[in-house]
Description:
203 residues, globular
Amino acid sequence: MKSRALRLLGARRAAAAVVAISATLLGCPKNTAPTEAGAAAVLVPLAPDAAPPARAPEIDDLWARAGDEDAGAADDLARLARREGVAGLIERGAHPALRRTAARALGFTDGFYAFSWLGEVAASDVDADAFAALDSAVQLAAQPRRATDPEDAIELRAGCEKLVGIARDAKAPKKRRVLAIRALRMLSDKGCAKEIPADLDAR
Length: 203
């Protein structure tokens, strides 16, 4: 248990550093980046013409296979998730061309550290990215409950707030609302939302 906690803490510090560096390079306000380990990861997008964070050729190939939505299988996404981890997926998910793949792969990670980032993507303007993020949020919500690092509560709460906003937005696309409500209902044991809209059938 101690070694797992140390690994999670290391991942949080890495993700926080990634977001802080991205915010500095892009000239984003300082309050958009986590200030300490465990702070909820936020989406700091890269410009479309910016180069994605570098990877070795074999890792780029893994991203390409996982990103092929016609031929890409769950196994490819799971392998990518294991190789990159939450921090690596969020780092590359800042690039628009890789965001959907990152969002889909995050559904194969453990715990709720990815939940706040998925919530932000779920509320974005790009439907395909939002649906991928919501699908992964549902996937994480369905994972077997286990002893969770208390710091995951920060990311879980931030993600839930985003999902509640989507669920309550009558102007949001129906599919987004259905998926958000589904995830919230599955997380009722976590106190994710006190009142879940009942105007849509999210079964």
